[in-house]
Every structure is written in C-alpha cells, then in structure tokens.
Amino acid sequence: MSERTRAPRPDQTARRGRAGRRGFLKAAAAGIGAGALTAAAPAGAGRGPRPVFVLVHGANGNGASMAPLASGLALHGCPAVSVDLPGHGPSGSFPQSYQAPQDLEALAVAPSPVLAETTLADNVDHVVAIVRRAARKGPVILVGHSMGGATITRVANEVPHLIARLVYVSAFCCVELRTVLDCFLTPEAATTLLPTIPQIGDPEWIGATRTNWRSGDPEFIAATKAALMADYSDTGFLAALNLFEPDESSAVPVDDASGDPATWGRVPRTYVRYTADRAIPLALQDRMIAEADAATPDNRFDVHSLNAPHLGPENPQALIEILLATAGT
User: DSSP secondary-structure letter at 14?
Assistant: First the structure.
C-alpha cells in the first residue's frame, strides 16, 4: 500500500573528524547491497511496448545477486536487464588469497586494480549506455538498491527523457546531502550497523575497500547478519553472503551523487522504504525522501514500505508486486 512520508527538513550536519570519515567511508562500501538481474523476454503481447526494468546493484554486489527478483518480473512478462557495474561481475576483483584456503596476510595487501580506478562517473556512463539500448525496446524503469541509488540519480541527470520512472529500493537519493558519505555523517545515520562489519587491509594501499565475506569467524557472521539480513534464515543468509564480492570502489561514496531538479527532478519516482533496515536506517531514508520532495514539490516520491532488512525480504514477492505496480502491470 502506498503512503506519503513527510518529515521536517533538517539542517545540514557538520562533517565529523578524519577518523569518523574514514570509518564511514569503509561502511559505505561494506555490503551495501547487491542488484539482481537476468535477461528475459516478454510473456505476451500487450498494448504497446512492455516496460523494461534496468536494475542496478549496490556495493559489493553484481548482476546475479537477486535472480529471484528478475525471475519474478519475467514471469509477469516484464523484461529485466542485467547490470554489472564496472569492476563487478566478470570484471570483479577476486584475489587468489580470497580462495580457500585463504591467505589473510596476502589478502590484506593484494591490490584491486580495476576498482582503484573506478568512479561514480564510470558507473553512470556504463548504465547510461544500457538505458539507451533498453529504451529502444520500451519505457525504462530504472531501479537502484542501496548505493545503486547514487548511480541512478546521476543517470537521470544525464538522460531524463529516456527514463519512465526511477525506483529507489532502500537506496541513497542525494539532493541536499551530496554524497553517500554525507548521508552517513548525519544524525539520522547514527544507528547504522555497517561499521560493525570488519574490514580487511588499508583502502589506500589496496585501492578499494575490502571485506572477507568468506570468513567463518562467528563475530563476523553475527555482525554481518545483524547489519544486512537480520531476519533471514541461516540458509538464506549464507546463500546471499556467498554472492557478495570482496572489493568496492573507495571513490563512489565520496563522489557527487546529487540530483539536479531540472533533469533528475522531472522523472517520476518511487521509494521503497525498508522499515527494518539497520544499514541505511529508516530515519535516513525518510530524510532523503523529504529533501527530494522539497527540491521538486510538483514531483514527489510515491512511497511504499516493506518490513525488511537492508538486503530486502528473503521472499521477494512483495517487492516484485511493488515493481510491477510502478509499471502498471
């Protein structure tokens, strides 16, 4: 059920010190979600072209992490386009020391050559090219989860005329807060559990942030589940954990991800709030919604809420139904 979420427009919060910045920079790239996609053909003819979903994953994700979501869209006749952001999927960084048996000393210093050079602009260029091709087949619904929200906002700055709707799924939507890091430095982000997930090595040396998702350490397992998938079954949690990629760009969380009201601001948009999210707290989601609505009062978010942790509901059916509703299906 749709609902309108209103919140007071808070004053911009001052940045914290260097130590806090570094900690939250790691947190911003630590498991902030993954995207889901497979290519699928329409199930049958309809009145005009069917919408084409382009789904953009978050940090440490890839185009294979939410296959059930893409499959659900395909079963309703909606094509879903696979996205692997630069440095993810086939071009992802998987040091040999990450394989079993792991060499943790080597893993802490192995460079991440692709992601060390990857910026938000690279992500945007990659997705713009996909949107241009997808728009030839039908109206594009551009979906971003978590840090994928930074990418879809910037894509809408570039090609608003090619996007029928933006959908933010517990995702970063920057307007007054210009970067993902800025969002994490607000009072509304104070309860995030992302900094409790241990990191490996020095991002400046590696060229990226690194997380050992294959760790069997009980403290790591407990912290990761609490932050990302608190209500998942143990089987579902471990299955999702094994789809994460160890490295994420250090540049993307600090690059300007803000939406331009003149371009991004004219694209219809939906926000799916995850009310049990302990990575991007609900208060921060609501602040981003409120600031976006204040920037474009004539084009406000259509808001939906799901009782789900950061990675989304273990059974994606409710999210699939919301996405289908955005397509009028």
Answer: P
Name the nearest CA neighbour of 59 among 248, 308, 326, 288.
248
**What is the three-class DSSP state of 270?**
strand
* Distance from chain centroid for Cα 188: 18
**What is the C-alpha separation between 38 and 67, in angstroms, rounded?**
7
- CATH number of the domain that residue 320 is part of: 3.40.50.1820
Structure tokens at 96: 């040999």
Q: What is the pLDDT of residues 215-257, one digit of tens each?
A: 999 999 999 999 999 999 999 999 999 999 999 999 999 999 9
- How many domains does the chain fold into? 1
Contact 193, 223 (CB under 8 A): yes
Report how far residue 188's alpha carbon sits from residue 306's, in angstroms, rounded to the nearest whole number: 19
Per-residue b or e along 171-190, where b marks 16 or more CB atoms closer than 10 Å to that residue's CB: bbbbbbbbbbbbbbbbebbe
Decide: 116 and 208 in contact? Cβ < 8 Å.
yes
Dihedral, CA atoms, 213, 180, 143, 242, nearest 10 degrees?
0
**This model's pTM is above 0.90:** no
Range of the domain at 26: 2-326
**Which residues have CB under 8 Å from 218's CB, separation 6+?**
none
Q: Show Cβ contacts of residue 30 under 8 Å, excluding neighbours closer than 6 positions.
A: 59, 60, 194, 195, 197, 199, 209, 211, 248
